[in-house]
Amino acid sequence: MRSHPGAWWLWALGLAVIAGRTTNPVLLALVIAVAGYVAVSCREDTPWAGAYGVFLKFALVVLAIRVVLHVLLGGVSGPTVLVTLPEIPLPEWAKGIRLGGPVSAEGLAFALYQGLQLATLLCCVGAANALANAKRLLRSLPAALYEVSVAVVVALTVAPQLVASARSVRRARTLRGDVVRGVKAVRVLMVPVLEDAFERSLVLAAAMDSRGYGRTAGLPKRARVVTGALVLGGLLGLCVGAYGLLGGGAPATPMLVVGAVLAVAGLWSGSRRVRRSRYRPDRWGPRELLIVASGVVAALATVLAPAGLGGSALTPATVPLTVPELPLLPAVGLLCALAPVVIARNRVNP
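Above: the chain sequence. Below: its structure as tokens.
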């Protein structure tokens, strides 16, 4: 039996929380390794199963761009100058910005940490795309979100469809005897891959729209307005609370609680709009709960880590430049995030 796709997304969200809380390259590399190992071990035989590899390559490109931008535009400086580039003078209104100049080891390390953090977030998203079926996940959307479901379809299926389209186009060109590789192959494949991916996503959205997905029931306008206000307020509260939690803000917990209550009330109110039947519905069971729990435990181990157990090592100093240490409690929590390998390995596909 396949695991619920929502469980994989929540598990990946737990890893993303860890990546958002730290710039420690050792811990970030461990997050990437855990996400990649679980994605490779637990993925199904689907066209988008290779999504993690695509996101990993994209993450490496983002990391390289972040480092290059620091070298060219500057940023954090330090006493250890590695190289001095020719500096281009800028007008007075561009004060604070430079092109070229000294490149220090401290600033380069800071840029590398920041870029690796963003790259790790992309890898978490890639693991979720490789493990979860976006179409099955959309079937679990609450009725209160029906109006935006078509847009959600396009947004969630573009990345998996890109992977499937790239494989299809590459296989077709190989059968025709095309052996182009490298940068030239990217230029040749980019247009057909993007066109095919967007076409597939839009065809799926059109099919859902033709079947009435996104329709509104015969509820009065006042009820629809109240439902929308509750959902919007709840999601806004969750976003503010999550931002405060990741940034260490004080009102994080109250905003999370208020946002969750409003969101649940809005979703419950909107669920009365449509009564639908489901063929082979995706159900939550002990396996899904354990997968989600492993991600939650890993996130809590990082968020609640005291200074003596690795909390002080989550943000290593770059000025002066120090060797990053492995945070003990967050690392142990990440080992718990490997539980899906044991939980989902013996599943039986229908």
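The longest strand covers residues 81-88.
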